[in-house]
């Protein structure tokens, strides 16, 4: 082998080693970049996940938590400074509300006690920011007076953030709650209070007692609504609303909440509860959603 050939081979080896080193550095840099990208992708985001798909709430514990939250807010009417912190900030600003005028806006009186019964809830499930669109009726009890003021068709939006803090916002001009909820602009909301939204466990017995008591109240506060709550079998025993009205006092006297037995039958689209007292009289509750039910009764005398 000539000296020229040896020199050529040596130069070729050097060039090959240099190219190999360069390639190794390039590959190593790509691996580091990819690892950094993977690490960045695995870093939890602080941005909340907001689902905007609306469905009807059918969870007892969540439903009663919403009802409790609304009642807790209105339980603060004697402390208007704290009460303001429980309402949506945009709602406060849009209506120029303050400690002096918020009760007038809400049409409530400090000396009275309020009780809200939630009838229907639509919400965006599986979301860090949850919007609960609610339909309620309220009963306002005048302290020291045997008088109740009844207000049907009241609508509120309860917003709960990822820390389980919540704010309330009254809703106006709601014709259909589901349609209203599906057209609402759901977005992140800053909530700066110490509220605590907790699911409320309730037994079947307590829930049925509440249902019966709600029906008892509606017998006199909203008789037409109570009449519409009768199941088909019970409704057949009344020719019309007037015949039902004529029997209200009798129904009121016979409804009971002390049970000897309570049976439960779960079906595809409802749950049927049958409560019996010691005389084997029966009250039937057919529940479709929380607080959305039909009621029937069989007593020893009369109906």
Structural overview:
This protein has helices at residues 3-42, 60-74, 80-84, 89-94, 102-106, 177-182, 204-221, 223-228, 232-235, 241-246, 248-254; strands spanning 55-56, 113-123, 130-141, 148-160, 166-171, 261-266, 271-276, 282-289, 292-298. With 303 residues, it is of the alpha+beta class. Strands 1-2-3-4-5 form a five-stranded antiparallel sheet. Strands 6-7-8-9 form a four-stranded antiparallel sheet. It is globular, with a radius of gyration of 32 Å. The mean pLDDT is 87.
Question: How would you summarize what this structure contains?
Answer:
The protein is of the alpha+beta class and 303 residues long. It has helices spanning 3-42, 60-74, 80-84, 89-94, 102-106, 177-182, 204-221, 223-228, 232-235, 241-246, 248-254; strands at residues 55-56, 113-123, 130-141, 148-160, 166-171, 261-266, 271-276, 282-289, 292-298. It is globular, with a radius of gyration of 32 Å.
In round numbers, the mean pLDDT is 87
Radius of gyration: 32 Å
Strand order of the largest sheet: 1-2-3-4-5
Q: Determine the strand fraction and express it as a percent band.
A: 15-25%
Alpha-carbon distance between the termini?
121 Å
Oligomeric state of the chains? single chain
Strand segment tally: 9
Main sheet makeup:
5 strands, antiparallel
Q: Given the C-alpha coordinates, what overall shape results?
A: globular
SSE order: HEHHHHEEEEHHHHHHEEEE
Overview features:
4-stranded antiparallel beta sheet, about 300 residues, globular, 5-stranded antiparallel beta sheet, about 25% strand, 9 strands, alpha+beta
């Amino acid at each position: 082998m000539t000296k020229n050939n040896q020199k050529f081979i040596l130069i070729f080896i050097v060039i090959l080693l240099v190219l190999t080193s360069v390639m190794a550095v390039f590959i190593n840099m790509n691996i580091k970049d990819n690892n950094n990208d993977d690490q960045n992708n695995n870093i939890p985001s602080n941005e909340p996940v907001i689902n905007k798909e609306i469905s009807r709430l059918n969870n007892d514990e969540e439903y009663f938590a919403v009802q409790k939250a609304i009642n807790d807010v209105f339980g603060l009417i004697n402390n208007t400074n704290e009460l303001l912190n429980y309402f949506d900030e945009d709602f406060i600003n849009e209506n120029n509300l303050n400690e002096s005028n918020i009760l007038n806006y809400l049409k409530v009186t400090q000396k009275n006690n309020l009780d809200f019964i939630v009838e229907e809830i639509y919400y965006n499930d599986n979301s860090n920011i949850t919007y609960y669109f609610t339909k309620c009726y309220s009963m306002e009890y005048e302290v020291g007076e045997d008088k109740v003021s009844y207000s049907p068709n009241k609508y509120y939006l309860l917003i709960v953030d990822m820390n389980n803090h919540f704010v309330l916002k009254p809703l106006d001009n709601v014709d259909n709650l589901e349609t209203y909820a599906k057209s609402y602009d759901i977005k992140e909301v800053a909530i700066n209070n110490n509220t605590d939204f907790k699911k409320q466990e309730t037994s079947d017995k307590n829930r049925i007692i509440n249902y019966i008591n709600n029906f008892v109240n509606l017998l006199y506060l909203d008789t037409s609504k109570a009449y519409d709550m009768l199941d088909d079998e019970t409704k057949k025993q009344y020719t019309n609303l007037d015949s039902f009205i004529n029997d209200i006092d009798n129904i009121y006297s016979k409804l009971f909440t002390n049970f000897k037995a309570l049976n439960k039958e779960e079906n595809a689209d409802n749950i049927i509860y049958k409560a019996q007292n010691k005389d084997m009289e029966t009250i039937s509750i057919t529940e479709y959603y929380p607080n959305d039910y039909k009621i029937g009764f069989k007593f020893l005398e009369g109906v």
